[in-house]
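Let us practice reading a record.
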Amino acid sequence: MSSALSRKKVGELVERCAVLATLIEVSGYPKPGNVHRTRDAAKTRFEHFLAGSVAIGPTMRTLAEKGHDVGTGRLSVSRIGLGSQILRATQDSLSWQKGGNVNLGVVLLLAPLAAASGLHLPKMRHVDLPQLRQYIEVVIGGAVPNDSVGIYQAIRAAVPPRVLGKVDELDVMDDAALDRIRKEGLTPLRIFEECRGRDSICSEWVTGFSATFTLGYPALREALQQSGDINMAVVHAFLSILSEVPDSLIERKSGRKAALEVSRMASEVLKRGGLADSEGKKAVLEMDETLHRAGGDLNPGTTADLTAASLYLLLFEGWRP
């Protein structure tokens, strides 16, 4: 990839990678416990996810263009506006479909990825994922307290309190938390340090996207090389992430014990071959049925978000379906 990509071309590339990553992720089937192309939830259907995926595209383009401006010296990293752009993408997603929150987690992951991609491309003649990871840390490290406010507003717009749960410090639903953020100048990185132990997306922000780069993307790449089948690769990457990282959405809804049990189930399904083996495929389908019987309480939604971020890396690096 040439370093001569214009600001416009960078924005177009990142938007397409981001949208396609989310579309491929939600289409992967059967991802146990998730909505996918052969499974709807009670109030949220497959097409709601499709609409939400397309709706976030313009924001990802804007973030990439702002990253490009940082890379070419026309903008300081603190002025990218991660928080306001995350809020914009969330509002766009909610306005384009009636299924509720379908991709807040994906937006929280793709936003710094998009900005970092825009920063990366003016400086490199080809995509270098380790370098991209460093730029993600630059983008996140440059986020300011106003970005924290925007992120809180996005979460409040998208997620019901019963799903979020309640915490003692800086609770998203507590108006006093926003006042404290402004008063004390709390950045997203500072806040996410506090929640990294209970939320995998917070953990990604403070670890340079560790699960995405060291677990999800390698699992996706390996499965794709072995099978040549992107659907199989998506499901296997999803299961690989879930087997190693207990899903934080499940933990918030149903507790740590339930999250660990679902991770154990994912590990067992992989040991039986997953979609690459007839018995493994049967086990995947059985796991999907078991999780869906819980009515959403055992939905590995955060794992799906991490899978989408991993797919973004694959597409940004140049793979095409």
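A brief commentary: DSSP finds 17 helices and no strands in the chain.
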